[in-house]
Amino acid sequence: MLALYRKYRPKKLSDIFGQETNVEILKNAAKTGRIAHAYLFYGPRGTGKTSTARILSKIANCEKIKTDESFRQKGEPCNECHACLEIETGRALDIVEIDAASNRGIDEIRSLQEGIKLSPASLSFKVFIIDEVHMLTTPAFNALLKTLEEPPAHAIFILATTEIEKVPATITSRTQKFVFKKVSIDLLVSKLKSIAEKENITIEENALTLVARAAEGSVRDSESLLDQISSFLGNSEKITLEKTEDIIGKTGFHKIAELLSATLEKNAEKSLSFISGLKEKGQDIVQFNKDLINSLGKLLALKANEKMEMIFKKEMTDSELEEIKNLAKKFELENMLKLVKLLISAHREMRYSPFPSVPLEVALIEFINS
């Protein structure tokens, strides 16, 4: 049985989720036949960089695009011709995928240079997809630069990276650059809901929101987490927020808001009982504190500037935004600043402490007693 992220991997540009600008540009390039010789896709993990590279490989080699002008205006591969099917199944000899994390030396790039000189075996273009390109060594980058400067007419390079700042400017300047942004929580939830319906997975909306938040804008991570939860509980059992929290070790936003409210109200019993409950469940206290700091940061920003609400709409659900707005009205800015400083200090100590919950508990007690 295929993993969900592989089963629902995009097969055409319109399937790429949350990257509308990139999709539109690449579709227009496909319609006009203006496929560039080098691309650089950069952005966070799981946002569609490699999937887009494979789809672009199909567009460059699609037989129906070459012969059917009306179909070409769709700007999509047909996924039916010999070339598309060979690429989709991973059998195309002319599509070379290289993981630069494990093939990062000059010898691998020299081997690639030798392969480039040869004409395609069966397709129109040879496509070289270099993933995690920022991992290449300096000599390897220098060798790649020469190839990018004078590429053969039958070669297309697609470089992908999560850390564009590590890619030399001499490389980036010779490519068309496309940024892949994190996907918003609302979009991820709608995607997961669609998959859950197709897979007959019964899951609460709050649980889907927690999965989307845990994925941190990554479509692939969200699908993998949904797969993990459904595999553990089975399709016959309803997946609740509590069960999801236990399985993925993350706490829902409403509970984080509950602790923030109790702490800012200086309710020691409620605050410390909450942390004890997390420990009993075996949840990652360090990760929880990071989520707590992140939520408090949003609370501070909203308190300081109400216009931040428009930005947070992309990152939060309507109910979460309403809850954080109510908290912002309820508490003073000075108290929030004091608490976030204590939590950040606690986070530094937690990473090296054999008792990670203690610095957090001390920070909460210090704030409540101040």
UniProtKB/TrEMBL annotation:
Residues 35-184 form the AAA+ ATPase domain. GO terms for biological process: DNA-templated DNA replication. GO terms for cellular component: DNA polymerase III complex. InterPro entries: AAA+_ATPase, DNA_pol3_clamp-load_cplx_C, DNA_pol_III_gamma-3, DNA_pol_III_sug/sutau_N, DNA_Rep/Repair_Clamp_Loader, HLD_clamp_pol_III_gamma_tau, P-loop_NTPase. Pfam families: DNA_pol3_delta2, DNA_pol3_gamma3, DNAX_ATPase_lid. The keyword Phosphoprotein does not apply. It catalyses: DNA(n) + a 2'-deoxyribonucleoside 5'-triphosphate = DNA(n+1) + diphosphate. Its EC number is 2.7.7.7. One of its GO terms (molecular function) is metal ion binding. It is an enzyme of class 2 (transferase). Keywords: ATP-binding, DNA replication, DNA-directed DNA polymerase, Metal-binding, Nucleotide-binding, Nucleotidyltransferase, Transferase, Zinc. The keyword Nuclease does not apply. NCBIfam families: dnaX_nterm (TIGR02397), PRK05563.1 (NF004046). Belongs to the DnaX/STICHEL family. DNA polymerase III is a complex, multichain enzyme responsible for most of the replicative synthesis in bacteria. This DNA polymerase also exhibits 3' to 5' exonuclease activity. DNA polymerase III contains a core (composed of alpha, epsilon and theta chains) that associates with a tau subunit. This core dimerizes to form the POLIII' complex. PolIII' associates with the gamma complex (composed of gamma, delta, delta', psi and chi chains) and with the beta chain to form the complete DNA polymerase III complex. This is DNA polymerase III subunit gamma/tau.
